[in-house]
Design a protein that fits this description.
Blueprint: H1 2-11, E1 17-20, H2 24-34, E2 40-43, E3 61-64, H3 66-86, E4 88-91, E5 93-97, E6 111-115, E7 124-128, H4 129-141, E8 146-149, E9 154-158, E10 163-166, E11 169-172, E12 176-178, H5 185-190, E13 197-212, E14 222-224, E15 229-231, E16 240-245, E17 250-255, E18 261-268, H6 269-277, H7 280-290, H8 292-298, H9 300-309, E19 313-321, E20 324-325, E21 328-330, H10 333-336, H11 345-362, H12 375-408, H13 414-435, H14 454-459, H15 464-469, H16 475-498, H17 500-519
Helix pairs in contact: 2-3, 2-4, 2-11, 3-11, 7-8, 11-12, 12-16, 16-17
């Protein structure tokens, strides 16, 4: 009876939508909904972590790329984008560490820099998960229609009636968005419905995060004369993602604004167990053997203390279908958890936000029609989101698993380095011919889902990493394009290797002509950027 009275009270007040989860995806989505006039309840089971120190040892560092930046700009415009950029550090490539000797800042002979993009402006943003989450929640609180409810536990979700039982109270909503991560309460409710498919797969590798201290001899903001960029008091280059690839495992580091580095060790669970059950000397010996330069920077005592105290995290992929039921929908990791090796978990989740908001707009789902007549519009918007996102997030899940092999092993191989150089050359050659050297061509990298650009996608050679990280090309489309490009390169190599000098040369020329016919446009093909193209600063 008490619940019914409370439910009646909520039904007689303003109509609201619920966003479950106050993480990055949930807070960005809530901000976008609020700017469209919706009244939003953010329901978060944890406390307000803005008032607590961000925990070390678990998921505190992220790589923000074009898809995430595009979504942030879509929701909050240039003003929000600038605030995000101000708390991040641009990262232009990978710094590969060998294990020959300890790190020496004056001797980089054992380091190899591998640029990420094919254009100089292309970079990732290394950013603290906590700092970004704080910023987005602060922006949400500025919206009068948003209420953030911390320490709220969901015990039941009624998908048929769009109701949530929170801390014993039954609440009525017009729409429910599940942005509550891999252990989603909303997805758990959907799993009890006929026709809902769900699977999860744990990798036999886990991860442990460590913190590399700042350099006390370098004041923050001093000039780094080697690359003419700011050195933020870091012990290593502050504009690189540092990787120690060791075949079956790897160490990875991203810079933080305070001069520290978030270091992540990816290792088989069996090896973690062996090290944790062993002696302190065994931990130090492992790092001496595999990562001597990192050990010299962090020091044995600090290493052992953090290794003992920081937890081992799990790596898993999650697939679900369909993403919605009635007027409730899954978004971000709740719908599609991916492993972090392409840095696309957060970026794909933020892209979800942009796509779902675009579909709400497309089908005219507004505050004014949140009634029985609007139910059909909501269903159409959610169905369109489900249809467009499912194949794309399945594609990035597959690509992310494959990129682990690249990061931990292939980056050291000569054939990988050759292919990377070949990709850059082919991009520049085909772009030059297609655009006839028009410098404004780089604008098209930043324009999401523009069908006018399909001709460019088809005719210009684009490296897979650049398509994933520096464009908004749908994941499924870029995966197929990458496969096509791989086949062409493999055909060229096969013709040269198997045919001998003369026959191989003829075969290589034949395949080269195939590339020419596919990628070089005829004279009547468009040679200038599409109308309305404007320089961007994403």
């Amino acid at each position: 009876r008490e619940n019914k009275v409370k439910l009646l009270a909520t039904m007689n007040t303003e109509k609201r939508v619920a966003v479950i989860g106050a993480g990055l995806v949930g807070s960005l989505l809530s901000l976008g909904l609020a700017k469209r006039g919706f009244k939003v309840d953010i329901i978060e089971k944890r406390g307000d972590y803005r008032h607590a120190a961000h925990s070390e040892g678990k998921s505190i560092n992220l790589a923000l790329s074009t898809r995430g930046l595009t979504a942030i700009n879509y929701v909050g415009g240039e003003a929000l984008l600038k605030k995000v950029r101000d708390i991040g550090i641009p990262v232009y490539g990978r710094m590969i560490h060998s294990k020959k000797k300890a790190y020496n800042a004056t001797d980089s002979s054992d380091l190899e820099f591998q640029q990420y993009g094919v254009l100089d402006w292309q970079h990732l943003m290394s950013i603290s998960r906590g700092d970004l989450n704080d910023l987005l929640l602060d922006e949400c609180e500025k919206e009068p229609g948003v209420k953030i409810h911390f320490n709220e536990t969901i015990s039941h979700v009624n998908l048929e009636k769009t109701q949530i039982t929170v801390n014993g109270d039954l609440k009525q909503y017009e729409m429910i968005f599940g942005a509550d991560g891999v252990y989603s309460a909303l997805r758990n409710a959907m799993q009890h419905n006929k026709g809902f498919n769900f699977s999860q797969q744990y990798l036999d590798h886990g991860y442990k995060e460590l913190l590399l201290q700042a350099d006390p001899t370098k004041p923050l903001g001093t000039n780094n004369t080697d690359n003419n960029q700011k050195n933020l008091g870091h012990l290593m280059d502050s504009h690189s993602l540092h990787i120690w690839p060791r075949g079956l495992f790897m160490l990875m580091g991203l810079p933080n604004l305070d001069g520290t580095y978030t270091i992540t060790l990816f290792l088989p669970h069996t090896k973690f167990e062996q090290l944790e059950q062993g002696t302190d000397r065994g931990i130090v010996q492992f790092f001496e053997d595999e990562f001597p330069d990192f050990l010299a920077l962090i020091g044995p005592d600090r290493l052992v203390k953090q290794f003992r105290s920081n937890p081992v995290g799990s790596l898993l992929t999650i697939q679900a279908a369909p993403y919605y039921k009635k007027k409730s929908i899954l978004i971000g990791d709740a719908a599609h958890g991916v492993v972090p090796f392409y840095g696309q978990g957060m970026n794909a989740g933020m892209e979800d936000v942009r796509v779902v908001l675009q579909n709400l707009d497309k089908f005219n789902v507004t505050v004014r029609n949140l009634d029985e007549s609007g139910n059909a519009r909501i269903t159409e918007a959610f169905e369109e989101y489900n249809k467009s996102r499912k194949p794309n997030v399945d594609a990035i899940s597959e690509l992310s698993l494959g990129n682990y092999n690249e990061m931990r092993d292939h980056v050291n191989h000569s054939d990988y380095k050759f292919r990377k150089q070949l990709d850059v050359y082919l991009y520049k050659m085909t772009s030059l011919i297609y655009w006839k050297g028009n410098s404004r061509a780089q604008e098209i990298w930043k324009r999401p889902d523009d069908e006018n650009l399909k001709d460019w996608y088809d005719r210009v050679w684009i490296p897979q990493y650049s398509m994933v990280s520096f464009s908004n090309i749908p994941y499924a489309r870029l995966r197929q394009k990458a496969r096509d490009q791989d086949k062409i390169v493999n055909d060229v190599i096969s013709a040269i290797v198997s045919g001998g000098k003369f026959v191989g040369a003829v075969g290589a020329v034949a395949v080269a002509l195939t590339i020419l016919s596919k990628y070089f446009p005829p004279e009547d093909a468009p040679r200038t950027p599409p109308p309305g193209s404007r320089p961007g600063n994403l």
